[in-house]
Amino acid sequence: MMIKAVIVEDSRLARNELKELLKKHKDIELLGEAENVDQGFELIKETNPDLLFLDINMPEKDGFELLEMLDEVPITIFTTAFDEYAIKSFEYNALDYLLKPINQKRFDKSIEKVQGTLQETQNGVTTNAPEARLHLQSQIFIKDGEKCWLLKIGEISHFEIVGNYTRVFFQDQKPMLYKSLQQVEDKLPQEQFFRVSRQQIVNIGFIKEVIPWFNGKLKLSMQNGDEIEVSRRQSYLFKDKLSL
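Structure for DNA-binding response regulator, as requested:
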């Protein structure tokens, strides 16, 4: 399995160090490198890599801002010279972090994680979804205030419109995503997510119970305890989708 990778790092010396470390790994193809966030964003859009080596502390925009710009986030290994950033990266659920200067043994262990994660992801990906859409294993990045998350689409139970933004529900969290609900819906896998009303989209896998409601409508009891009302029109479509 060939792994496509890119480097986003403002230091030329650090980029060269990573390229030298990659020479040992013939199954990794380096598609390109960028020295700032804007260049990195364009590079990732053009190449659609499996793996991103990302410097956290860069001038103007940092690595977290780059992740916020992406609709889908590749497997990410943070590179940093600062311990506090390395610790913080775990809050983002990054696959791994590498402290500069990076030694070969530590780098090789990180690549082993990448290989295992990619194998799990490929096993869980359905191939019949349109390419423009995400799949359940796709990662998205959410930043709300000082808190940040890197999570898989399949881990999200539902979405709810809040003005021009969208609230995302997963585990016991409900941060804001700075995209409209329509923008979110356009990217979601249709076989798993359903628009129950103008206000909400649900992940069918997180529905605990479907309850008959007034005027032909349905109410959904979610695994986290939330109750979501399905509009009358969408209730008919929902019954058809689930063959109820």
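Confidence is low (pLDDT under 50) at residues 126-130.
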